[in-house]
Amino acid sequence: MSSGDPGVDTVETLTRSAVITARAAATFDPVGRSVATARSFVRDTLQGWGFTDIVDDAVVLTSELVTNAVVHAGTAADVLCLRSEDAVRIEVSDRYPEREIPLQQSSVNMGSPDREGGRGLQLCAALATRWGVDYTPTHKLVWFQLDLPHRPVGTRTAGPALPADLLPVADGRVRVAVIQIDRAGAINAWNEDAEDLFGYAAEQVIGKPLNDLAAWPHTPGTSTGIAEALQLSRWEGSYGIRGSHGRVIPVYASHLRVRDNEGEPSTVCLLVRDDERAVLQTPLRGATPEQGTLSEPNATDPFEVFIGSPAPEDLDGLLQRTVERARDMLDGDAAFLLLATDDETELEVRASTGLPSARQRFARVPVEAGPGRYGSARMPAVHEDLTLVPGAVPLLSGTGMRSVVTVPLKVEGRLTGSLGVAAEAPDRYSNEEALRLQFAADRIALAVESARLGELERLRRGSLSFLVEASDLLAGTLDRDQTLALMAQMTVPTLATWCAVYTIADQSAEPYLSYVLHEDEERIDGLKALLSKIDPPDPVPTPGARIWGAPSEAAHQAALRTSMRSLGLGEPMTLGSGIGTTLSTASAVGGETVVLPLVARNRVIGMLTLGKPSDEHFRQEILELAEDLSRRAALALDNARLYSERMAISQSLQRSLLPPGLPQIPGVEVDVIYRAAGEGNEVGGDFYDLFPIRDGAYGFAIGDVCGTGPEAAAVTGLARHALRLLAREGFGGPAVLERLNAAILDEGSRSRFLTLLYGELWPQEDGSAVLKIVCAGHPLPLRLRQDGTVEPYAEPQPLLGVMDDLELYEETMTLDPGDVLLCVTDGVTERREGTRMLGDDGLAEVLTTCTGLTAGAVAARIMRAVERFASDAPSDDMAILAMRVPGLEKD
């Protein structure tokens, strides 16, 4: 046994002796579809056990190991899932114990992860907690173990205990600037730590407003918000102080409002560098409940107080709880939360309350919407009345909201999202509400970002599993129509509600609607009819998804016309049309529609169109996954097209090498059976022919070119056409073969050895037939008499394509009534099963059982005997030519 933990010979965490709380087992046949079935079995099992955190890793590993078993080892695969309290172990065994695999700790190279097979152990080493291999006399078992995430009871966010050398480095000592601000906002106290932090001596700043030094938020030249913060009884948050060197220093501040003995109010400000905020940050907030504070008297964690306990573990739940609490905190009518894209250029709506969420969900707005302070989502913004600035907040257009406050969510100075609260009445919000909402945003930003990263990781692993399965399915077929169906079925409903695939035959052709699929089968016909009436999308090769509005517009127009007709305001409705059908189609395609180009070998071969129902949008992660799928699907579709074209060309050329048909010979029965070796081959190195030479004379031939495939087929065509031409020019058998030998030798390096049996046949009035035969290196023809005796019917002579000076002769003989002449190629006599071979004697023995049979029955019996002799598919071409002179058969 080898293990993923070097030096460990036994499984310590989850062995057979551990407490197993559940088990599930299944066996999968050694066929390609079993890989997908095994993935579904493991996914369903772990989801049923509630282990969704490890499902994607388990599915990917199972896919690789089952592929090794059923595809590479070629045996059935047994999959066993074992559950314990803190881990899951999955075992995959096959019936091929001799097929060893390298140990991880050995020096054997496990290969590139990009090659077709053998990645199972590399993935085990990368994803599994433990793994190993067991060998038995009858089985080889590969197992892996995935530990369940450890979640201590009551723990939400905690930092690990770190060694001293891993703790963050402070600049010398932690400096706490103590600054006191009077009623007017001017500085009247400035300690030494403030001088060290910001570079100003006390006499330089005493009497100056703090607003002159402060930047809010972290932006030089803006001071909005600091004056308001200084007026609150207590406030904590981040902003920037411009130092004497001119740069903004990010600080974390704690403000406390006090009054002296004479009742004069002032504000004491404690400031530290922002990366040392733990010195000042406190879970308590001293505002009164009447002011709508975020904390409670005995609260210890402002995040828990704001979100509630227990906090949702999933991102969508956390975001939805956030917007609901934010709306309640500011007594708003609606709230929304947007998350930033990776490049921080756009914000995507991820949660809302009080708004039409179906329409708003996953909609996008730019981070920098315009000039000015309120034009950037990176800064807090308060709009007292949206009717005065139409379009200032596009997200709220048409919702009836009049006033809104928005604040950024930031983690380590990077914009990660935006939180907003809106109300139907104007003038509901001021800078004070912005500060309170910013206070909440500062405390949830890190939790939201952590949850978002966790979701992205799960999506990444889920995407990996999805693409693994998609690649398997697409690689499993070279049929164009089946590839189109697979493309659509993989996207619906996983990525989209409906899908349409357009194909482009060549660069000058228009896109053609090839396949349409909707998750509701009853809507497919209406969707197909709608798409067929509008112009297809432009075949733009630019990668990525682009919006296509034509389907939605056409659906809405069709629904409008139908509604008008139903009210008697338009043309009468025709039979077969219905309001319900048109309206349901409009609802099905009324959402966002995107088009992804299918590009293969630097050419656009089609478009993949994905759509959502009314008022729904695509997530960026889904579009990125669809783009990955479209690249794989495009290559698979182009491979299917190339395969179909080449198969059509190959089959057309191969058919041209076969005789167009067998002539009717008076007084002689003739039948032929031909089998070419290899998938998709109709003609190989073996060939036959039967043709009239002149009145009363017929030529026949059966031959075998050395080798198989296209090269042998080329010589086949040369030989068959040369035989007909030379025979009809009046040459006898030896002369025909001698000239054919010269033609083969003239081919040079493309020439092939050729064994050939050529003969001419003359039916006689007495019911017999006279034959002249030349057997050039070919298996001898066999004659079956009416009494059941079998004998060779010619003498062997040299084969063709070897020597220049070839001297051949022909033999003349007569077939009596009731006799059968059997001619075969060596693919028949050399049929093998292990060390056994049918041979000439075996063929003669089968032929003795064919007395009294027609020529067709003789050929069929010989072929059945050859096929039954071995279980494997034939590896050589086979041709059987049977000729029989009818006569009196024995009873």
From TrEMBL:
Keywords: Hydrolase. Coiled coil: none annotated. Pfam families: GAF, GAF_3, HATPase_c_2, PAS, SpoIIE. It comes from the Bacteria. InterPro entries: Bact_Sigma-Reg, GAF, GAF-like_dom_sf, HATPase_C_sf, HATPase_dom, PAS, PAS-like_dom_sf, PAS_fold. PANTHER family: STAGE II SPORULATION PROTEIN E (PTHR43156:SF2), STAGE II SPORULATION PROTEIN E-RELATED (PTHR43156). This is SpoIIE family protein phosphatase. It comes from Streptomyces huasconensis.
